[in-house]
């Protein structure tokens, strides 16, 4: 027989109280308010909280050791290096497509580096600002080569896999209506599910950002079995989001991106950043803090650029580290000097 | 439930004392306690509410259900009533609700049949059959449903593509696009016939009740089946024939990428139905087994001793008693199927949760979206509860 | 009844010799009664036996004989070459630490591993009737606190690990166990409230229980992930793991309350009346007489409800929390490992099964034990 003593209720009460107290620090009550100064809050906390994807090959995914890696993750590391001089003072919060904006609005994350398309309604109605477009993308289609389809226009009557709740889904509807194409959607939220559905032949075509298509294609054992169709049906500027009305922090994020671009433009790399300090070009000297006080103007250490480049390298190094291995070409993300869209305002 | 006989003396209330404003008066304490608890909870709710209103304002998030009449723009694969992306969010949500009902109702029927069979197999004298049923019940119940759904969906995707579809019988195709069956082209005549059948069934039911009532009075059996045959078969067929007996079979055939025509069951629906049915059947089997075991063996023997045929024993003696034990837990399983159908969102079947979720992503109106989901499930749960309570009351033991 | 006549008369001598009666004992007898008792039974046995053997051979072929157990440096070509004829357990070999511990810092994996051991130990201790006394509550508080300290660190030279990095099996255990521990006091209060004579309190409890039980857990989790942040005052923010935990507590509270209420109802009226007759106050009556008896009765259904929560925690997948199932699915995102879902699902399923099966067996034996005295 169990022995519930007479003081059972008291013990239960104490236990409940004890458990409640055993959860200290779970509630972080001092996160920055929606319109407060994120920059100072991050500084005071000693850590940047970065919202990333829950798992997207090339952009953000934990490796076998549980360390986050990828293009978007490197941007978090770069901003951390700019603020603290240390790329590892970042806490990564995986966010689903559904909760990403709420997480930013409520202060759960400081910055959203999570392949988010910059649109007018998001910029105005969701209480956030987009600091910089770090990746220019567009929506496309992928099919199996064996299907014999060469153009998206031939997809009449096809079954198309699409992720819900994103701009992709609405773009697809718009495009089908404009081109009078009837299709059957297969709507699955989680990326790995939808990719396996497509690979298994559940749908004839898979639509998402071209970068995602390329990543998926290269991940297949025989990439040549898959074909990315030439049509790009939308513009998808993937941008880094910060809270609205927080200009100072937005500046830091924005200029960190520009720094990566300029570093590539001037040939500053992770390996040669120390020697480049002696480079005679005045803009290089300004960037690397040898000359002028650009870092101080941003409220950062004057050697912030050195720290960032030492941590992640320049834009092409970041790109090549994460996106090149999965088969994504620079394309529109080449520097303006190389015919692309990535363009940094002058460091002056 | 044990029915305790109540001593009439205990129903006598003590004489009412006048209410004294003192802590030692139990009634005063009761009122104070209630005011306190309601006050605290009211204050918390008010606090949350005012925070929410403030936050919505500060973050410039729109409120209200105005979005329901806006164009949805989201594609939906399975719809029982016509739908296109140019329709409104309201219609999209309605499609979602119908899809939820479609999987829940079919799931309830199949799980009941399948679960009963397994429950009986569990009681079988054949050791192997009984053991297999036992292992099935144990394994199915100890794995998360979500995992099972993902597993089934992965298996269904392993089927061959539409061009290599399995083709066991003419007109039936099984591929990773789902199951295709031939189906008649629906015309008005079919609807009329169906209506006649429903009315006929209703009439037969009343007729049977009347026949039983009369038999109780004079003891003469009145066969119901001629009436049933007439109302439920001859009449609908006659109406259908009178309307010109339309009979065009819509055969599915491979055209372009996909099959056209015929009746389609998508892999998402199939996986969800399969997962829900097999999972819930594991629970129903145990309920059925317990229900049958709850009927004492003496009841079987007594019924046989009265000279009832085996079918009669089961129908007149055992089942009514077993059902009394079975119905209440069965109700909660039916509710579970309905609620668990919300896991559809993980495998891409567009039920109400999936569509409301997309809606709240696109409009940013989380509160309204979740309120719709909750309201829908509360109404469904309430309807099932009411129906099952009514049925339970009908079959309950009538005690004096 | 008996066909065998002992008195051998002249007529009987003409009868044909009979075969020996069918053996009812021994292995053959067991086979006859349980597997081959009639033509139908025999047919069922043969058909099922054939299917099982076919299936078992196929499974052994796939899972053991043709399987690849490990590959060097993420070179999954060996696995791909199998083309489904064998399992690629290499994915589990490579990713097992990720599946178990998620994104927790690699060098610190001993901490969640120790926590898992602590959880298992806690379950075992709670299962032993020798420990069913008030100290058990203190043991729970102690162990759960210890688990919190281990997971967070920041003391005793253990680096601080924020809960965004927690993941895998330990998250599943945390959500289920803390859910139970915190929902239980709530459930007792609600169950008492629902049986209370005070109309306002009773109404509140009924609304709470029926509201929560009427909606799916997913809708509560959605609420926790997208609506909770709106409920809080500006600048205040709670972590998403805690938000999910709150949703699970609210959910578990309603179901447990019904279990506890069942226990309260099954007590005979005499217990209440006797307590009243002794002049005990409501709380004395509840604490000393009613709850100790009622809670003892509900332990088996309580374990069953706990199994339910344990499985239901997998739904946090849908809001992107790294529990066991999510970690398993995330492990196969990496391009090299895409397409080995079945192996990972089987592994994850086996882990869930071990926990749930142990608990359900325990609950069954406990039920039998607790009911033993009632049979006589």
Automatic annotation (TrEMBL), chain A:
<keyword id="KW-0732">Signal</keyword>
<dbReference type="InterPro" id="IPR051455">
    <property type="entry name" value="Bact_solute-bind_prot3"/>
</dbReference>
<feature type="domain" description="Solute-binding protein family 3/N-terminal">
    <location>
        <begin position="47"/>
        <end position="276"/>
    </location>
</feature>
<feature type="signal peptide">
    <location>
        <begin position="1"/>
        <end position="29"/>
    </location>
</feature>
<dbReference type="GO" id="GO:0006865">
    <property type="term" value="P:amino acid transport"/>
</dbReference>
<dbReference type="InterPro" id="IPR001638">
    <property type="entry name" value="Solute-binding_3/MltF_N"/>
</dbReference>
<protein>
    <submittedName>
        <fullName>General L-amino acid-binding protein</fullName>
    </submittedName>
</protein>
<comment type="similarity">
    <text>Belongs to the bacterial solute-binding protein 3 family.</text>
</comment>
<keyword id="KW-0813">Transport</keyword>
<dbReference type="Pfam" id="PF00497">
    <property type="entry name" value="SBP_bac_3"/>
</dbReference>
Automatic annotation (TrEMBL), chain B:
<feature type="transmembrane region" description="Helical">
    <location>
        <begin position="228"/>
        <end position="249"/>
    </location>
</feature>
<keyword id="KW-1133">Transmembrane helix</keyword>
<dbReference type="Pfam" id="PF00528">
    <property type="entry name" value="BPD_transp_1"/>
</dbReference>
<dbReference type="InterPro" id="IPR035906">
    <property type="entry name" value="MetI-like_sf"/>
</dbReference>
<feature type="transmembrane region" description="Helical">
    <location>
        <begin position="30"/>
        <end position="49"/>
    </location>
</feature>
<feature type="domain" description="ABC transmembrane type-1">
    <location>
        <begin position="97"/>
        <end position="388"/>
    </location>
</feature>
<protein>
    <submittedName>
        <fullName>Amino acid ABC transporter membrane protein 1, PAAT family</fullName>
    </submittedName>
</protein>
<feature type="transmembrane region" description="Helical">
    <location>
        <begin position="135"/>
        <end position="155"/>
    </location>
</feature>
<feature type="transmembrane region" description="Helical">
    <location>
        <begin position="269"/>
        <end position="288"/>
    </location>
</feature>
<comment type="similarity">
    <text>Belongs to the binding-protein-dependent transport system permease family. HisMQ subfamily.</text>
</comment>
<dbReference type="InterPro" id="IPR000515">
    <property type="entry name" value="MetI-like"/>
</dbReference>
<keyword id="KW-0029">Amino-acid transport</keyword>
<feature type="transmembrane region" description="Helical">
    <location>
        <begin position="189"/>
        <end position="207"/>
    </location>
</feature>
<feature type="transmembrane region" description="Helical">
    <location>
        <begin position="370"/>
        <end position="391"/>
    </location>
</feature>
<feature type="transmembrane region" description="Helical">
    <location>
        <begin position="103"/>
        <end position="123"/>
    </location>
</feature>
From TrEMBL, chain C:
<keyword id="KW-0813">Transport</keyword>
<dbReference type="InterPro" id="IPR010065">
    <property type="entry name" value="AA_ABC_transptr_permease_3TM"/>
</dbReference>
<keyword id="KW-1003">Cell membrane</keyword>
<dbReference type="GO" id="GO:0006865">
    <property type="term" value="P:amino acid transport"/>
</dbReference>
<feature type="transmembrane region" description="Helical">
    <location>
        <begin position="39"/>
        <end position="65"/>
    </location>
</feature>
<feature type="transmembrane region" description="Helical">
    <location>
        <begin position="339"/>
        <end position="358"/>
    </location>
</feature>
<feature type="transmembrane region" description="Helical">
    <location>
        <begin position="109"/>
        <end position="125"/>
    </location>
</feature>
<dbReference type="GO" id="GO:0022857">
    <property type="term" value="F:transmembrane transporter activity"/>
</dbReference>
<dbReference type="GO" id="GO:0043190">
    <property type="term" value="C:ATP-binding cassette (ABC) transporter complex"/>
</dbReference>
<keyword id="KW-1133">Transmembrane helix</keyword>
<keyword id="KW-0472">Membrane</keyword>
<dbReference type="InterPro" id="IPR043429">
    <property type="entry name" value="ArtM/GltK/GlnP/TcyL/YhdX-like"/>
</dbReference>
<comment type="similarity">
    <text>Belongs to the binding-protein-dependent transport system permease family. HisMQ subfamily.</text>
</comment>
<feature type="transmembrane region" description="Helical">
    <location>
        <begin position="244"/>
        <end position="264"/>
    </location>
</feature>
<feature type="transmembrane region" description="Helical">
    <location>
        <begin position="137"/>
        <end position="160"/>
    </location>
</feature>
């Amino acid at each position: 027989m169990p022995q519930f003593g007479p003081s059972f209720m008291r013990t239960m009460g104490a236990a409940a109280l004890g458990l409640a107290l055993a959860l200290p620090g779970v509630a972080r009550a001092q996160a920055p308010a929606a319109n407060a100064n994120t920059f100072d809050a991050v500084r005071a906390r000693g850590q940047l909280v970065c919202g990333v994807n829950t798992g997207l090959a090339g952009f953000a995914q934990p490796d076998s050791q549980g360390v986050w890696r990828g293009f978007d993750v490197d941007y978090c590391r770069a901003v951390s290096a700019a603020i603290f001089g240390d790329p590892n003072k970042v806490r990564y919060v995986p966010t689903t497509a559904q909760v990403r904006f709420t997480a930013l609005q409520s202060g759960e994350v400081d910055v959203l580096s999570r392949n988010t398309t910059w649109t007018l309604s998001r910029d105005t109605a969701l209480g956030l600002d987009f600091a910089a477009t770090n990746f220019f993308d567009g929506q496309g289609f992928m099919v199996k080569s064996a299907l014999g389809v060469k153009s998206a226009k031939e997809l009449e009557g096809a079954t198309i896999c699409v992720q819900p709740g994103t701009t992709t889904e609405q773009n697809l509807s718009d495009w089908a209506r404009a081109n009078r194409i009837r299709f059957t959607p297969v709507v699955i939220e989680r990326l790995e599910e939808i990719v396996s559905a497509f690979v298994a032949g559940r749908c004839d075509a898979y639509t998402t950002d071209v970068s995602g298509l390329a990543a998926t294609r290269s991940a297949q054992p025989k990439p040549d079995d898959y074909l990315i169709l030439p049509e790009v049906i939308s513009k998808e500027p993937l941008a880094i989001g910060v809270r609205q009305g927080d200009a100072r922090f937005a500046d830091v994020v924005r200029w960190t991106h520009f720094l990566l671009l300029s570093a590539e433009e001037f040939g500053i790399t992770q390996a040669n950043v120390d020697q480049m300090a002696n480079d005679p070009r005045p803009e290089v000297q300004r960037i690397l803090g040898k000359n002028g006080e650009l870092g101080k103007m941003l409220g950062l250490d004057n050697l912030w650029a050195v720290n960032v480049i030492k941590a992640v390298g320049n834009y092409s190094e970041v790109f090549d580290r994460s996106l090149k291995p999965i088969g994504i070409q620079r394309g529109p993300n080449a520097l303006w000097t190389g015919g692309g869209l990535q363009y940094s305002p002058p460091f002056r | 439930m044990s029915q305790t006989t109540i001593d009439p003396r205990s129903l006598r209330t003590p004489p009412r004392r006048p209410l004294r404003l003192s802590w030692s008066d139990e009634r005063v304490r009761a009122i104070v306690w209630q005011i306190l608890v309601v006050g605290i909870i009211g204050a918390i709710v008010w606090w949350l509410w005012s925070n929410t209103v403030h936050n919505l304002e500060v973050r410039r998030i729109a409120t209200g259900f105005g979005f329901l009449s806006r164009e949805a723009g989201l594609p939906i694969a399975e719809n029982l009533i016509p739908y296109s992306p140019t329709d409104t969010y309201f219609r999209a949500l309605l499609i979602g609700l119908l899809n939820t009902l479609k999987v829940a109702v079919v799931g309830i029927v199949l799980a009941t049949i399948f679960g009963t069979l397994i429950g009986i197999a569990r009681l079988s004298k054949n050791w192997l059959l009984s053991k297999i049923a036992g292992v099935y019940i144990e394994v199915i119940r100890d794995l998360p449903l979500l995992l099972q759904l993902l597993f089934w969906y992965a298996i269904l995707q392993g089927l061959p593509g539409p061009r290599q579809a399995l083709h066991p019988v003419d007109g039936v195709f099984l591929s990773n696009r789902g199951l295709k069956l031939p189906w008649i082209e629906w015309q008005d005549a079919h609807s009329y016939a169906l209506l006649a059948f429903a009315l006929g069934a209703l009439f037969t039911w009343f007729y049977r009740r009347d026949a039983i009532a009369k038999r109780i009075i004079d003891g003469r059996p009145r066969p119901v089946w001629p009436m049933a045959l007439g109302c439920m078969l001859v009449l609908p067929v006659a109406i259908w024939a009178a309307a010109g007996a339309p009979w065009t079979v819509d055969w599915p055939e491979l055209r372009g990428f996909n099959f056209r025509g015929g009746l389609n069951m998508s892999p998402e629906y199939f996986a969800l139905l399969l997962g829900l049915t097999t999972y819930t059947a594991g629970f129903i089997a145990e309920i059925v087994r317990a229900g049958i075991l709850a009927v004492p063996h003496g009841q079987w023997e007594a019924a046989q001793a009265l000279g009832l045929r085996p079918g009669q024993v089961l129908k007149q003696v055992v089942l009514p008693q077993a059902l009394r034990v079975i119905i209440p837990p069965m109700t909660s399983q039916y509710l579970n199927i309905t609620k668990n159908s919300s896991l559809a969102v993980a495998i891409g079947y567009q039920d109400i949760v999936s569509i409301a979720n997309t809606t709240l992503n696109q409009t940013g109106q989380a509160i309204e979206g979740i309120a719709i989901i909750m309201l829908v499930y509360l109404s469904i749960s309430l309807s099932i509860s009411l129906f099952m309570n009514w049925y339970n009351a009908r079959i309950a033991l009538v005690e004096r | 009844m008996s066909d065998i006549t002992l008195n051998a008369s002249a007529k009987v001598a003409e009868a044909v010799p009979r075969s020996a009666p069918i053996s009812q004992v021994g292995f053959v007898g067991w086979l006859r009664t349980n597997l081959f008792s009639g033509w139908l039974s025999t047919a069922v046995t043969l058909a099922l036996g054939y299917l099982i053997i076919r299936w078992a051979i196929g499974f052994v072929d796939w899972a053991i004989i043709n399987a690849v157990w490990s590959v060097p440096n993420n070179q999954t070509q060996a696995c791909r070459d199998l083309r489904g004829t064998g399992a690629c357990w290499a994915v589990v070999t490579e990713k097992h630490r990720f599946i178990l511990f998620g994104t927790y810092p690699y060098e610190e994996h001993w901490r969640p591993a120790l926590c898992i051991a602590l959880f298992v130990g806690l379950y075992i201790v709670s299962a032993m009737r020798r420990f069913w006394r008030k100290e058990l509550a203190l043991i729970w508080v102690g162990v759960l606190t210890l688990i919190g300290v281990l997971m967070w660190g920041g003391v005793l030279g253990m680096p601080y690990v924020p809960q965004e990095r927690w993941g895998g099996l330990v998250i599943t255990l945390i959500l289920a166990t803390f859910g139970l521990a915190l929902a239980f006091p709530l459930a007792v209060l609600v169950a008492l409230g629902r049986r209370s004579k005070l109309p306002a309190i009773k109404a509140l409890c009924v609304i709470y229980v029926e509201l929560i039980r009427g909606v799916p857990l997913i809708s509560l989790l959605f609420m926790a992930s997208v609506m909770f942040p709106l409920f809080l005052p500006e600048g205040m923010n709670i972590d998403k793991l805690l938000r999910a935990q709150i949703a699970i507590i609210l959910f578990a509270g309603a179901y447990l309350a019904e279990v506890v209420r069942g226990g309260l109802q099954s007590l005979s009226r005499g217990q209440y009346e006797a307590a009243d007759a002794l002049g005990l106050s409501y709380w004395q009556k509840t604490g000393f007489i009613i709850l100790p008896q009622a809670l003892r009765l509900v332990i088996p259904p309580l374990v069953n409800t706990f199994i339910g929560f344990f499985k239901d925690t997998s739904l946090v997948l849908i809001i992107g929390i790294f529990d066991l199932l999510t970690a398993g699915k995330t492990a196969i995102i990496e391009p090299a490992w895409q397409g080995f879902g079945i192996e990972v699902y089987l592994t994850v399923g086996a882990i869930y099964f071990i926990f749930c099966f142990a608990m359900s067996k325990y609950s069954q034996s406990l039920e039998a034990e607790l009911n033993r005295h009632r049979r006589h």
